[in-house]
Amino acid sequence: xxxxxxxxxxxxxxxxxxxxxxxxxxxxxxxxxxxxxxxxxxxxxxxxxxxxxxxxxxxxxxxxxxxxxxxxxxxxxxxxxxxxxxxxxxxxxxxxxxxxxxxxxxxxxxxxxxxxxxxxxxxxxxxxxxxxxxxxxxxxxxxxxxxxxxxxxxxxxxxxxxxxxxxxxxxxxxxxxxxxxxxxxxxxxxxxxxxxxxxxxxxxxxxxxxxxxxxxxxxxxxxxxxxxxxxxxxxxxxxxxxxxxxxxxxxxxxxxxxxxxxxxxxxxxxxxxxxxxxxxxxxxxxxxxxxxxxxxxxxxxxxxxxxxxxxx
Length: 312
Description:
There is one protein chain. By secondary structure, this protein is mostly helical. The chain has one domain. The chain is built from 13 helices and no strands. It has helices at residues 18-32, 34-41, 47-69, 80-100, 106-113, 116-127, 135-153, 163-187, 195-217, 227-252, 257-261, 266-278, 285-301. Helix 7 (135-153) packs antiparallel against helix 13. The chain is globular.
């Protein structure tokens, strides 16, 4: 799952070659498997605790990597409160993401989570003058809304009685993810802050939020570190939160962000397929229909604006 659609790197080429496209598909595949790994990890590690430890490990790995690259990761003192705000929003995002996954299926959760681009598009229209809604974005929002209605309507027999709580939590996670993205976009208009610094702030300052949530909500819950749980947690920390993001860093400094973002529709598609294959989740026809509408909406929302008419 990407957290860097807010970046504005210097792009070196206007198109993505075949090798780069295949690598990007691979990254989306890794992100699609993240929700599956969270569901497996929840079987032995309390979700809020897992999210807190994941942030801690990823922050430590980023600190080492940035040190090797000679990149500063701490914000200047005058920007510290921005870092704290980013971390709180990011912490709430992952609180609802991990906690919500205990109530609903991974196939549903990944679709609801990836409503993120639509919340960003709506918020940017009002908060960022240079990023207004276009006809394609508006069409994408309509398609996505119809898709969410279909997903909410799909109810396989394997769903628990409180599945709707998890669904709502995943939508809340998408909302806070979007709020994080918009906040970073806004401060980048007046501050020179690198993606290393914003990402490190998200990880570091989210730890107290997630740790407090774990103490309040998960006290007394035991740890059951089976082999599948350990592998799933390793995947979350090292494969997704570190390795896949390093690949994403390289790509956003090589290819146009707008072209990269259009590929994100693949992530919920891979997520649903992997949920069915790995977790053996029932995927009814309505959910497939909702998925198709949502991924089409993601694609349209992320298309370059070019000369499209702005919506008033």
